[in-house]
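Progress note, sequence design subtask.
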């Protein structure tokens, strides 16, 4: 039995609806699979670091935010607190959420002494995981890891 073969070339407009559908599906896929770290609240000017020194992981949902402004004001999850209330809030959060993380975000003009004081307060509250928020240094080459210098060879004097 012989079948008739024929091919018709249909001329007309290309339908853009399937292309738009695929584009929206790809966009939706990337939105759902990407992770975003929302840093709400107080605006501070964080320190810039080269990309090679940045922390690769992002804090999970159990992360708390401690922010120190240039005026030495302390915010715990967008609520202004003093050191005593910060310690009680951190201790309470450490009891309720074991393994919780704290993101410490400070202005670059905050003194080193103040940062160490707050880090010590976080550690004494029982939280072991502390992340320091920085912003990437744009248009700068990544710094290679620092290698320890070799000790100079001992020389003998006769």
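Output:
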């Amino acid at each position: 039995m012989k079948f008739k073969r024929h091919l018709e070339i249909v001329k007309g407009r290309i339908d853009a609806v399937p292309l738009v559908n695929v584009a929206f599906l790809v966009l939706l896929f990337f939105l759902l699979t990407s992770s975003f770290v929302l840093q709400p609240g107080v605006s501070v000017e964080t320190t810039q670091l080269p990309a090679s020194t940045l922390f690769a992981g992002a804090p999970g949902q159990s992360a708390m935010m401690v922010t120190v402004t240039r005026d030495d004001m302390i915010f715990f999850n967008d609520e202004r607190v003093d050191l005593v209330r910060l310690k009680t809030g951190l201790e309470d959060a450490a009891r309720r959420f074991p393994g919780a993380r704290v993101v410490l975000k400070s202005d670059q003009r905050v003194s080193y002494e103040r940062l160490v004081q707050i880090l010590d307060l976080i550690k004494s509250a029982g939280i072991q995981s502390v992340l320091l928020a920085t912003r990437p240094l744009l248009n700068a080459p990544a710094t290679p890891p620092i290698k320890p210098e070799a000790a100079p060879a001992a020389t003998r004097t006769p």
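The two ends are 110 Å apart (CA to CA). Work on this subtask will continue into the next period as scheduled.
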